[in-house]
Write a structure and sequence with these properties.
Length: 346
């Protein structure tokens, strides 16, 4: 893939040619260490011109979907309907919550320590286990191609790259954001109930990026909206005027946390992988990712009556009649909404 993006926004697609960015020049920053927080994710550099541009990833940092493809959404291989990275089925979670990984050679020892530290922090708070790959078929690999921050969603099979360039590995939360995509999560503000919690300022959003603010019938996991999630966009992502917001919380809250996982982020992972804290789910047979896990009887979802975890994830029996601020309709956004409704609907 030749186009990449540094925005998590989701992570992901700003066109800022000739426009100041947070009082910085629109040209490439001289030192990525000068960029932290939201600024990191608002930069995408065209690999040919080294100028900010439009990365083309779905929601800014999600790989595998060509959002500009004529005739509808297509994956990186030209296949229709979002492709393998977005089908949220149980088979695409990491078996037994075990994720093999490798770290590419393009990182300094300090950068590697940030990546490993972020993974260890996730392991200390969830049942997911990250292990250095030996010969497992399915695994994630962290690569630095000076191509921004991006990840596929859920387990796609085989080698699965997470792009993290220098500006993306300043804090644990920046790494964990992309890793949460790989575990199977989309962005917080894509929730179907988001209009109860935030107001979208459509007049200040770049027209080509309206679809970055779609909402979908998706996996609420029985949890309330989380302003502090590391999966939430920042307040001015994809803004025409970056001094003004594109999203306004309806409660007094800040959004765009990239320091570390919120308590609700931690709960999401443990619910999705059917475990409690550091206790793993029972091992499944025929794990395609390899490795083994100790069994556990501590699954919180196994005791649910009448509604399985996958009923919650897929939204079975729920409705999507929430009200909210109307957005301009485009053919692209209508198609995308229909696709997600089909994927996540009952």
């Amino acid at each position: 893939m030749t186009w990449s993006v540094i925005s998590l926004v989701s992570l992901f697609l700003l066109t800022v040619e000739g426009r100041a960015i947070s009082k910085r020049s629109a040209s490439a920053p001289s030192n990525w260490r000068d960029l932290i927080g939201d600024d990191v994710y608002q930069y995408y550099l065209d690999p040919k011109t080294h100028r900010p541009g439009n990365g083309g990833f779905f929601e800014g940092d999600i790989k595998g979907v060509d959002k500009t493809a004529a005739g509808g959404e297509k994956d990186a291989n030209g296949n229709a309907v979002l492709g393998q990275n977005a089908v949220m089925s149980k088979s695409q979670l990491w078996p037994n919550a075990l994720v093999p990984y490798t770290i590419g050679s393009g990182y300094s020892s300090q950068q590697k320590s940030v990546i490993v530290g972020a993974l260890k922090d996730m392991m200390s708070k969830t049942c997911v286990r990250f292990v250095e790959r030996t010969n497992e078929r399915d695994y994630i690999t962290f690569v630095n191609r000076n191509a921004g921050c991006s990840s596929y969603v859920a387990r796609t099979g085989g080698q699965q790259q997470i792009d993290l360039q220098e500006g993306c590995i300043y804090q644990f939360g920046e790494v964990q954001h992309e890793v949460m995509h790989a575990l199977g999560f989309f962005h917080e503000q894509s929730r179907k109930d988001r209009d109860e919690y935030i107001t979208i300022v459509w007049d200040n959003i770049q027209k080509d990026n309206y679809d970055q603010f779609e909402k979908y019938q998706s996996n609420l996991l029985g949890l309330t909206y989380d302003y502090d999630s590391i999966m939430h966009y920042g307040w001015n992502y994809f803004a025409l005027d970056r001094s003004q917001p594109t999203m306004v919380p309806k409660k007094k809250a800040s959004i765009g946390n990239r320091k570390a996982m919120s308590p609700t982020d931690i709960k999401k992972i443990n619910i999705l992988y059917e475990c409690t804290g550091s206790r793993a789910p029972a091992p499944s047979s025929g794990s395609s990712s390899g490795g083994s896990r100790p069994s556990s009887s501590g699954s919180t979802s196994s005791s649910r009556k009448g509604t399985s975890i996958w009923d919650l994830i897929l939204g079975r029996g729920s409705s999507d009649n929430e009200s909210g601020t109307a957005r301009p309709t485009t053919k692209k956004s209508s198609l995308l909404s229909s696709i997600f409704s089909g994927l996540f609907g009952g």
